[in-house]
Amino acid sequence: MLKRLTNFRDLFFVFVWRELLIRYKQTAIGMLWALIQPLSMMILFVVVFGLVLNITTNGCPRALFYFAGLVPWTFFSASVNASINSLTDHRDLITKIYFPREIIIFSRISVFISDFFISIVLLTGMLFFYKIPFTLNSLWAIPLSALLFLFTASICLLFGTINVYYRDVRLASGFLLQAWFFASPVFYSIDTVSLKMKFLLFLNPLTYIIENFRRVLIEERGIVPWQFAVETGFVIAFFIIAYKFFIHFERSFADVI
Amino acid sequence: MSSDTAICFDKVSKVFSKGHNQHGTLREGIMSFFSGKDKPGPLKDNQFFAIKNLSFLVQKGQSIGLYGPNGSGKSTLLKLVANVIAPTRGKVGVTGRIAPLIELGAGFHPDLNGLENIYMNGAILGMTIGEIKSKTDQIIEYSGLSDFISTPVKKYSSGMNLRLGFSIAIHSDADIYLIDEILAVGDEEFKIKSFNSIKDLLEQNKTLLIVSHSMERLSQLTDKIIFLKKQD
Fold first, then answer.
1. Using the beta-carbon criterion (under 8 Å), do B107 and A92 form an inter-chain contact?
2. Any idea which of A40-44, A61-65, B35-39 has the lowest mean pLDDT?
C-alpha cells in the first residue's frame, strides 16, 4: 500500500499543492476562512448550548470547551464532506490516465489538515488566555490527532468509493454528518451521560478521540493506556481494511464513474 | 513477456454494460472483496463485448496504427493499455511509462494558470517535479503561449488548451505514447508542428499507438496497422 504512494510521490505533492492553491484562489480573506468556520460555530454554541440550554462543561470556560471539541470535529466533517465528491469531480482524469486514485482523496484531506493546524495555533492562544498550564499530558494531543487523521481518511476512502457507484452518498451525507455530530461529544462531555449510554457512544471512534483531545488539553487529565491501545488497534485495522477495499474497487472506477 | 516487448495483449476481452447496472457491480465487488475470488460470470442481457479475445504484441520502438469503424473498440483498447480500465478476461502487460495524448487538456484545472497546469499535468504524466522544472521553458516555448502563461486556463480558447496539453505530453519523455485523432485538431501551423513532433518520437525509438480514421496518416506514421472489426 505504501509503495503505491512512494512511486507517485511527486504527483502527490503536486496534488496537495494544487488543492491548497485553488482553495484560496479568488477569495478575499484567504486563510482566515480556516478559522471562521470553527470560531463562528463556537460563538453559536456559547449562545445556544451555554446561555440558552445551560449544558454543563465540567467547569471549563465555555468558549474553550466548545472550541477544543470543534477543532477535531470540523476537521472530520469538512474532510468527509469534501471527499465524497472528490473522485466523481475527477472523472476526466480517472477515465483518461492511471495513477493511484487515493491521491485524490488524500490530497483533498490535506487542505483540512492545514486548517486543523491553523486552528491549533488559535487554540493554543486560547489556552494561554485562560491560563491553562501546559503539562506533559497535553502532548497526548499529538497521537490523538494522528488517530483522528487516520480514522477520517478511512471514512473518506469508503464514502468516496461508494459515491462512485451510488450518488446517494452525497445526498445522505448531510443527515449522516449531522447525526454523527450528535453522537460525538462536541457540545457535551461524556462524563455527563449514563454508563449504558457511554458504552454506546464509544462505539463511535470519534467519541474517544474528541473526548480525550479535550481532556488532555484543557482539563489537564491523562489518558487510560489500555483504552488508547484498543482504540489505536481498532483505528489502524479499520484504516487497512478501508484502504484495501478502496484498492479493490479502484480498478473498476473508470467503468462506472 | 520478453524485455523487448512494450505492450502485450493475451486473449483480452472487455465487457461493458449498456445501462446503469452499478448496483450489480458494487454488490459483486463487495462479494469478491470478501471471498478473494474474482471470476467473471456469464454475459448478462444488457452487456456486450467491446473487445473480444484480442491478442497482439508490440515491440519497443514500434509504431502501431489502430483502424476500424466507430464502436470497434479502439478507444477501449487505448484505455486498457493506459491501465485506466481492467480487462474482463485475459491479461494486459505494459512496460514503460505511458503518455496518453487523448482529450488533451482534460486534466487542466480551470482556476489554475498555464504554468501551474504544466506542473499538474506533467506530474500526472509521471514526470518528477525536477523534470518538470527543467522542461518548463521548452514546454512554454513549444506551445507558443509565453504571453498567456500566467492567465487562468479557464480563459484559454480550445486551441490554446490543446497546444499546451500537447506540448506537455510531447515533453513528458514517456516510453509509450497513445495518440487518438489529435492530429486533426488545431490550426494548420500547429498541425504540421505536432505531426513533425510525432515523427521525431519515432526516431527517438518510442513506442506509439495511433488511432485514426485517416489511412493516409496511419501509413505515414506507423509500421503496422491493426484492423478492428465492430463486435456484435
1. yes
2. B35-39
Q: Which amino acid is at B161?
A: N
Q: What is d(CA A135, CA A69) in angstroms, rounded to the nearest whole number?
A: 19
- Would the pLDDT of B1 be above 60? no
Question: Which domain covers residue A65, as residue numbers?
Answer: 31-256
Residue A10 lies in a domain: no
Out of B86, B102, B126, closest to residue A252 by CB: B86
| Domain-located, residue A25 | no
Taking CB atoms and an 8 Å cutoff, what residues of chain B touch A11?
123-124, 126
Q: What distance in Å separates the CA atoms of residue A256 and residue A220, rounded to the nearest whole number?
A: 50
The predicted structure's pLDDT at residue A68: 92
| Residue at A135 is within a domain | yes
Residue A70 lies in a domain: yes
Is residue B207 scored above 80 in pLDDT? Answer: yes
Q: Of the candidates A219, A217, A186, which has an alpha carbon nearest to the alpha carbon of residue A201?
A: A186
- Which residues 12-71 of chain A have a CB within 8 Å of chain B? 13-15, 17-18, 21-22, 25-26
Asked if B120's CB is within 8 angstroms of A18's CB, the reply is: yes
Q: What is the ipTM of this complex?
A: 0.84
Report the chain A residue with the minimal C-alpha distance to residue B14: A255
Contacts of B32 (CB under 8 A, 6+ apart): A248, B38
Q: By three-state DSSP, how is residue B56 classified?
A: strand
Tracing cell 458494487 back to the chain, one arrives at B26
Point out which residues pair with B65 in neighbouring strands: B210, B225
Helix, strand, coil shares, percent, chain A, to 5 = 80, 0, 20
Give the count of domains, chain A: 1
In this prediction, residue B188 carries a pLDDT of 82
Beta carbons of B127 and A10 less than 8 Å apart = yes
